[in-house]
Amino acid sequence: MHTSVDWRAWGSAMSGSEAGLAGLGLYRIASANCVLVGLLCLTGAHGHVFAVWDSVVDASGSRVALLMPAVQLAFTGFSNLLLAAAVWRRGSLAIWMALFINVVAAVYFSCLLHQGVTDHPIGLFLAVVAAHSLVLVALKMGLMWPVESARTAGS
User: Fold this and answer.
1) N or C: which end of the chain has fewer CB within 10 A?
2) What is the 3-state secondary structure (H, E, C) of 95-110?
């Protein structure tokens, strides 16, 4: 059974009135955030694996628990990088997916932060993922930036 996927649904689905440049800045910021968050999370996943690898090799039963932060960081990083182009093109499904993935990551990092892991940059990852989630929520709520009428009123 072969199913055909319409990849254009992930990209631009604008009507003629939305085709102008007004309000596209926030989509571009969200797309750039996807790339930055993705790279930061992948770097964090690599660093985490490097830091705990000796413990993983020696551990008998806690291997999954030791590697789970790296798996979460890697999944969040790859997902954000893969969704960046679709977010740039204002893909609604891509924005929803990025929002869901980043909120799940923020909740997971919050739980880790609450557990009190010492000497670990969980707060940095939580702050970056939460800030990116707020930008995505603003997009889904309809916030547009820059607003065309405000730009032309000042000139």
Assistant:
1) N
2) HHHHHHHHHHHHHHHH
What is the band of 16 on the pLDDT scale with cuts at 50, 70, 90?
A: very low
Report d(CA 95, CA 84) in Å as an integer.
9
The pLDDT mean for the chain works out to: 81
Judge whether 39 and 73 are in contact, CB under 8 Å.
Answer: no
Going from the C-alpha of 138 to that of each of 41, 110, 132, 135, 144, the distances in angstroms are 22, 21, 10, 5, 8
Asked if residue 119 lies in contact with residue 52, where contact means CB atoms within 8 angstroms, the answer is no
**How many other C-beta atoms are found inside a 10 Å radius of the C-beta of residue 83?**
26
Q: How far is 80 from 141, CA to CA, in rounded Å?
A: 20
3-7: average pLDDT? 51
